[in-house]
Each structure stands twice: as C-alpha cells, then as structure tokens.
Design goal:
Elements (H helix, E strand, L loop, with lengths): L22 E4 L7 H6 L4 E6 L3 H4 L2 H11 L3 E5 L8 H13 L4 E6 L1 H13 L7 H4 L11 E5 L11 E6 L4 E6 L7 E4 L9 H21 L6 H23 L4 H13 L15 H13 L3 H17 L3 H12 L6 H18 L16 H14 L7 H9 L2
Helix pairs in contact: 4-5, 7-8, 7-9, 7-11, 8-9, 10-11, 10-14, 11-13, 11-15, 12-13, 14-15
The structure holds 5,6-dihydroxy-NADP and zinc ion.
C-alpha cells in the first residue's frame, strides 16, 4: 500500500541537493596544515593575499613556512584590495598562466578569497574573466583553491560565490559556480584576533545579512527546520560579536563568530527553502562599487529600510523574527515586525555601524544613480521586480 505523506500541512520542504565539497580544518593551531593540504593539488602555488595585515600578524610567516616545508614553489600575487577589482584579478590570471601555477592558496578575508576564485576560473580560459560575471561564459575546469581565512564575514571560505568590481564600468557583480568551492579551508579563530572592532562588526552584520536574505525572501510561510537554524545563527552572530567587541582576543567569541559566518552562507540555510534572493546585497554592491563602502557597513545602512519596505508586504515572518530573535511578545504582526526591525537597527548602532546613507556620507541626491547601478546587477541576477523605482523607494528609507 502506498503510504501517502501528509502534504496538506502549510509548510512544504522543497526538494533540494546539498553538496558542499569544501573540507574545513577548524581551530587553534590549524594553519600549519595548509602546506600539505595545498601540495596535494600541485607544487607550483600562486599565493594570493591583501595589503599586508598577514605580514603584521604573523600569518604570512606561518603559511609560507608550511608551504616551503612541504616543498611548494611559491609565486606571490599580493595587494588584493577590500572590494577586489577586476584589473588586479586580470594581473593574477596573467601571472598564474605565465608561471604555470597548479593551485591557488588565498590568505585573507572575503576579498582575497573571492579574487582567488576568479583567478582560478580565469587562469584556464582564453576569454576575459569578466564574461563569467555577466553570464556570457561558464566555468570550465578551474585551478584548485585552498584558503586560510583571516576575517569572519563573507562565508567565501566554504561557498562557490565571489564578487568583483569592474572599476571601468563601476559595476560590482557576483556569481557562483559549484566548481569554485575551495578544496580545503583552514579556519583558525586566532587568525582573526587582529581584526579591528569596526571590521569585526561589519563581518557579523554580513553574516546576519546572509541569513536574513533567505529568511525573508523564501516564499514558504513556514519552514521550521531552516527557520530555527537561521534564527540561531542571527542570535549567535550578535552574541559572539558583542563578546569579541568587549575583548578582541576572546578566543571563544572569535571561534563562535567565525563558524557562524561560515554556516551563514555555505548552502545549508537555503536547503529546502525553494527560490530565495539577495535583494539587500543587490543594493549594497552598488554602494561598494560606487563609493568603496565596506560591505558590512553598506549592509547595516540598507537592512532596516529594506526590512520596513518588505514587512509592509508580508509582516508575518518579520513578526516571527521579532518574537524568536528578540523575544518580543505583544502586539499585532505589524507592531511586532516594527519592534524587531528597530531592535536590530539599535544593535547596529550599538556596534557603531552606519544605519543610514548619511552615516556613510552619501548624499540622498545620489539615490537615482545608485538605483541605476543596482538595476544592471538585477538584470544579470534575473530579479525583474527590483526596478529603479522600487530600489529608489528603499534607498529613500535609508
Ligand atoms: O588587505 P588585508 O591585509 O587583507 O586587510 C583586510 C582589509 O583591509 C583586513 N583584514 C583581513 N583579515 C585581517 C585584517 N586585518 C587585520 N587582521 C586580520 N586578520 O580587513 C579588511 C577587509 O577585508 P575583506 O577581505 O575586504 O573583508 P571581508 O572578509 O568582509 O570581505 C568583503 C568582500 O567579500 C565579498 C564582499 O562583496 C567584499 O568584496 N563577499 C563575498 C561573498 C561570497 N564569496 O560569498 C558574499 C558576501 O556577501 C560578500 O559580498
Ligand atoms: Zn555579504
């Protein structure tokens, strides 16, 4: 007899495939493993890193010692800037091709890891790497990537996405391809102890935004497994960030924040939610493209306005967010939604992150220009309901 499961309940778990191939080595003293992990993919290594924090905090020494001890031949591509730019990606691709690198090793935060992913994809093709970002070309067989994460924020260490700014067109576009998952990522929380308070806060906000994008854009009214997982990640991001801001060397706080940020965008939260979107990121990427705004700072300026805009359309999930994350109990769904959004905005202020365009020194006269910039990405991301008018309405609320 065929047992028919009850599909009458309102929450439906969509079919999904969850496949995250990235191996994670987590914890104190894991960095020396990067040499053997990288060498298993090849001996000629392109070492990618930023503007120098790893030389100041000793991570560069730990990584190069481990790579040299394992017999690696290192080619350096340094100077990745925060909000990485296309011209520097192209230089890295040329270097990887000329030196016939077999594997890329990224040491840094999301900017360094994202640039490294783009180099992995571009180093094995003859067309320009930007064609991946405009959807004109798809990834073939990229170089393998290993990483040592030094900032808890983007989740790039365990996902297949990357975001690059084309400085000629002033477009900051992102794309993902499952072949671009790092093979191995080393997450030693001690590596993040040198991250200053502001970027610690921006990183926690980025992790929270990754959760909220899915939490508030899923079409399903009730997804209990994912909801409680996501609510827990938001609570952990806030609580661990508070602990770290009270003591930048608090290992447990750094460890909780690091793992929370990784889980916030490694595919697990979205599994079973069906179609979800990235509307807050759609708008923030334009702020970073046009004004080089730190990603998390741009998000804290946009999130409350986007939430107020969206909650008018469907207050229920925002009311549940207020109850589950901030323990508000009384009021109509609209009142509860408003309380939850205000509480999150208050927490952004408490950790000294901007909560308006004014805080970012972006004049409101710029709103039409920002909206036009975001519409270009909305087209590539197939988000037709985000036209210029709607984006301007949201930005007017920032
Ligand atoms: O240049 P370095 O030396 O690396 O200095 C960086 C940079 O100035 C510094 N820093 C990093 N680790 C440090 C440190 N300073 C002291 N001690 C350490 N241990 O911090 C600054 C910011 O670094 P960055 O890598 O830019 O920050 P984050 O990790 O937040 O990455 C931001 C980038 O990630 C992209 C964003 O668009 C942005 O370009 N994102 C990537 C995503 C993905 N791949 O899935 C999703 C995200 O939504 C995001 O869009
Ligand atoms: Zn983000």
């Amino acid at each position: 007899m065929l047992v028919t499961c009850h599909l009458l309940t309102i929450n439906i778990m969509h079919n999904f495939v969850f496949h995250n191939p990235t191996k994670i080595l987590f914890g104190k003293g894991t960095i020396p493993a990067i040499g053997p992990e990288t060498m298993s993919f090849g001996g000629k290594v392109l070492l990618v890193y930023g503007s120098g924090s790893i030389k100041r905090n000793g991570i560069y020494q730990q990584v190069t010692d481990s790579l040299c001890k394992s017999g690696a031949e290192i080619v350096e591509h340094q100077g990745v800037q925060s909000n990485p730019i296309l011209s520097h990606v192209r230089e890295g691709i040329e270097l990887a091709k000329k030196q016939k690198c077999q594997v890329v090793c990224a040491i840094g935060g999301g900017s360094v890891i994202d640039e490294a992913k783009a180099i992995c994809a571009g180093a094995v093709v003859d067309h320009d790497v930007w064609k991946f970002f405009t959807g004109k070309k798809s990834v073939t067989a990229p170089l393998p990537l290993t990483t040592v994460l030094t900032l808890a924020a983007s989740g790039s260490e365990m996902n297949s996405g990357m975001v690059i700014t084309n400085e000629e067109t002033q477009q900051k576009f992102g794309f993902a391809n499952k072949k671009l998952h790092p093979k191995t990522s080393v997450l030693d929380p001690q590596a993040t102890c040198s991250v200053p308070a502001d970027y610690t806060a921006y990183g926690a906000i980025d992790a929270i935004a990754h959760v909220l994008e899915f939490y508030f854009t899923t079409q399903d009214p009730d997804t209990p497994v994912q909801d409680r997982f996501m609510e827990g990640l938001v609570i952990n991001a806030m609580e661990s960030c508070d602990r770290v801001l009270a003591d930048l060397n608090n290992y447990q706080g750094r460890a909780d924040l690091m793992w929370t940020a990784t889980l916030a965008l490694n595919g697990l939260t979205a599994a079973g939610l069906g179609k979800v979107g990235f509307p807050m990121h759609l708008i923030e990427h334009s702020l970073s493209a046009l004004y080089n705004t730190p990603h998390g700072a741009g998000l804290s300026a946009i999130i409350p306005a986007w939430m107020r805009h969206q909650s008018q359309r469907a207050p229920q999930r925002f009311a549940r967010f207020a109850e589950r994350v901030f323990a508000f109990r009384s009021g109509s769904p609209e009142e509860l939604a408003g309380k939850g959004i205000a509480a999150l905005e208050e927490w952004f202020r408490k950790i000294n992150s901007p909560t308006s365009l004014q805080d970012l020194n972006i004049p409101k006269e710029e709103i039409p220009r920002i909206a036009e910039n975001a519409v270009a990405q909305a087209k590539v991301w197939r988000m037709p309901d985000y036209d210029s008018e709607r984006i301007q309405t949201i930005l007017a609320g920032c």
